[in-house]
Write a structure and sequence with these properties.
Blueprint: H1 2-8, H2 12-37, H3 45-67, H4 75-85, H5 92-110, H6 119-133, H7 142-145, H8 153-157, H9 170-180, H10 189-209, H11 213-218, H12 222-231, H13 242-262, H14 268-294
Length: 295
Amino acid sequence: MNRIHKIIHFPLIKKLYVFFFFFVLYGWYKNGLLPYLEHYYSFSHLFLILFYPICGYGIGALFDFLFKNKYPFPNRFYGLLFSLIVPISTNICLFILSLSLLLFLNTFWISKKDSDLNFIALGKLLLILLLYSLQSYFYANLLEESQMFVYSYLDGIFGHNESGLFTSNSFLSLAALGVLSFDSYYKKEIPFYSYGVYLLTLVFYAFLKSDMNFILSHLFSSTVLFVFIFIAPLSSFSPYSKKRVAFYSILLGLTILPFSLLTNFFEGVYISLILVNLLLIFLNHLQISLIKRRI
């Protein structure tokens, strides 16, 4: 019993770091080692791909040291998280520049104003716009682009699909949700509510299109699951009260599919997340303004 007690009360951020380590390990295998063994990348690529999470964590740690950040979720955590979700086409210099600007924004504006702005999702979307404008927007590694492998539904569950550099393991995301759900500081209602509503939208759309395979294709989307489990519930960006958590989760689940159909299934979830996040910020400011007027 003591061992179980220690696991449950292991600090939330340390649990997240442990799971991020396994995501990095799998991403290194999928986007580095496997293509290298098939002679699509040089040996140096095995080290280059690991430079992203190391650099992300390192730049964040530098910000924490220089500006004495003592928040529960420090910049090094956000730096590592951002490194996991970037496309494989992201140039390392562009990654360092965009991450530094995001952390600067967080250090001198967002955290100072106690804002709920999800700057991770916002940063991801801005990076995608930049990659798209530079005509360097793609998620597939060279092995996947060669179309040597046809991924099955089972492959998709275990992460053999195109996603962020280190976020393509759906099975690992679901395992993380099972562990994190026992943590009292983790807002497990958000991924459960959001995923439930998202599933209903998939069923409804598949019924309209008479295409039940559509559900199987997107049921365990690694991009969507990663956002549901690791980004949407973060305390810095999400509401606390039960009613607002329910509103936030349901609206997120409802809007993912429409935005994904309008754009794509890599960025639709981030567009939905940032718009729901901005709506909640607006409602918070509106509520505060109404209270001040009454006083």
